[in-house]
Amino acid sequence: MELKIKEITETFSFNIEPKIKEITETFNTKLFNKDFTKEDVRDGLFEGQLGILYYLFNLYKIEQTDIVADKISEILNDVFSRVSEGNYLISVSTAFSYGLSGFGYITSELVKNGILEEDVLSFFDDINDYIYEAALKDFEKGNFDFMEGFPGALHYLQSIDHTHCASLIDKMHDALGQTKYPFYNHITELYNKGINFGIAHGILGILTVMLEIFEKDKTNPKVKDIITHCLTVIFESKKEAKAYGITTYYPYNLFYDGDELVSHPTNRLAWCSGDLAVALVLYKAGILLNREDCISLSNMLGKTSIERKTIEETGIHMSMFCHGTSGAACMYKKLYELSNNDIYRQAYQYWLTETVSYLEKEVNDSNDNYYNMLLGYPGAILTINNHSDAIMGWDKIFLI
Fold first, then answer.
1. At what angle do helices 100-112 and 150-159 cross, to 10 degrees?
2. Rounded CA gap, 41 and 357, in Å?
3. Which letter does DSSP use for residue 372 in this model?
4. 282-315 confidence digits (pLDDT tens)
5. CB of 54 closer than 8 Å to CB of 391
6. CB contact at 8 A, 351 and 309
7. pTM confidence score
8. Which residues are within 8 A (CB) of 168 and not within 5 positions of it... i.e. 6 or more apart?
9. Could you tell me the pLDDT band of residue 5, with boundaries at 50, 70 and 90?
10. Are 384 and 356 contacting, i.e. CB atoms less than 8 angstroms apart?
């Protein structure tokens, strides 16, 4: 089966369009008056100039004005220059969130949409080989974090249909059966190591990238084997637990402490962790693989999650995408588009309205993450403007 998207056309119970317009204009005014090239701003897609570029790229789809086009050109020229100089993090890191994989991804998107000429892609010939070699090293080190490791590189390379993808898939397939958890995250961060149940850092990110590959070519048995393994881990790891008094089914992560497999419970409804992210990825898998067990478990997780709204029940207290209102809104929106279940439309509208409420206060503040796509306001503002057909699907950079 194919993933079929149902557009949300229903109206809200009250008109929030004026608020959305005011928030967007306030943010844009600050953005257009800021010279990112003269300040100490990182370059990455999730946390730096490329994130702003991606925001502007989507804004340009809505309003093709000179001021947006000029800002895109300013930032793009600066990042290309910094990569060429080789003295900055983006020129050596291959991470999707802050390195070359993210840079290649956004550049290819600009080419696909006619903003850049296709010949610019030749700039990435050697870079793509470098990303591939780094991905192999990340695999050997056990870095299966989507934002920083192997899955992010594979996501980028498969998005441009690069020939290196085949050998990376072979590498993953060869690892199946060698251990119970061949994609175990051997990193030190407490919440992300081991088997992490978020799209950002763990098995959900790996599974989603493999589903992208499977959707393009359903004939590769190795891809299906890898998907089946990931789903088996997810099903076997489901366990009712309490986090801050809330009943949940998936933890932040499972990790070994000596010989003991330890669970780290979470109450979050977030892109980076929790039951909602599991529900979304399982629904996608259920449709593509025609597996009713995936859809059934997704429905159970999704329906129990919508009852949770307070900070204590969700861990949500700001608009950011990673573990804030906008990330929850986008995931419920996609669940509605996939399932046509009205409970998800209602949940999307609730979290969208919450995002607007938070942004009304936040957008006038100043903080270190203000222009951060993941932890600041660009992602949240794209979320509240996602009713526009022009930017439908913008959240694919987060594997939504």
1. 20
2. 28
3. -
4. 999 999 999 999 999 999 999 999 999 999 999 9
5. no
6. no
7. 0.94
8. 132, 135, 136, 139, 150, 153, 154, 157
9. very low
10. yes
